[in-house]
Write a structure and sequence with these properties.
The termini are far apart. It contains 1 helix and 11 strands; from the N terminus they run ββββββαβββββ. The protein is an all-beta fold and 196 residues long. The radius of gyration is 17 Å and the shape is globular.
């Protein structure tokens, strides 16, 4: 077989010409239906913070028309330098939930952010749920959020921390790595699911 793009235009960043090296396309995902896609640029200077990162949602109608970029990118609520938001991305099968990893945020402990789509189709971009390693487990250099995945039903989120150190003392194993599963209950009054 051979790949035929059917003349589709590439998904392009929004006027990032002045920002060299933003790494647009560093991580990408497309929904099962093919109607929603996320493209991240983990070195994008969100809120003028160098390498804070951002991700853009693209959508198209069921007829397979042109892609439309959402006006507001996904980003961390309080972006900081070198967070690398967008180091990983995933979508639920329905395309209603998005999860974005930020492997260097919170002093390189890392985090992930869960975003939800409102019934009208708009994404809630300013109040995502923050996902972090369980209390007492996260350390600087764990890079929690380097990889993320969300189940097809949108019920569970899986987040990897490839440089997590396990054990203590003589039994400490550096960079052994861990992965964490989180339950995503139904959305509460703010429209965004709560992480457990």
């Amino acid at each position: 077989w051979s790949w035929n793009p059917d003349g589709l235009s590439p998904l392009e960043p929004p006027d990032l010409a002045e920002w060299d090296g933003v790494a647009f396309g560093e991580s990408v995902v497309i929904s099962v239906s093919g109607g929603t896609a996320i493209v991240a640029a983990e070195r994008y200077p969100t809120a003028a913070e160098v390498n804070a990162g951002a991700a853009w949602i693209f959508s198209r109608d069921e007829g397979g028309g042109a892609w439309t970029r959402s006006p507001n990118p996904l980003s961390a609520p309080s972006p900081a330098e070198y967070d690398r938001f967008g180091s990983s991305v995933d979508l639920s099968s329905s395309g209603l939930y998005a999860i974005v990893g930020s492997r260097l945020s919170h002093s390189e402990k890392g985090s992930a952010y869960l975003f939800a789509q409102e019934p009208g189709g708009l994404w809630i971009t300013d109040t995502p749920e923050v996902i972090q390693a369980p209390a007492g487990d996260g350390q600087s250099g764990d890079y929690f959020g380097s990889s993320v995945s969300i189940s097809s039903s949108g019920t569970y989120a899986l987040v990897g921390a490839p440089q997590d150190t396990s054990g203590a003392g003589d039994y400490e194993i550096s960079d052994r790595g861990s992965a964490y599963v989180f339950l995503i209950p139904d959305a509460d009054s703010d429209g965004v699911p709560d992480i457990r």
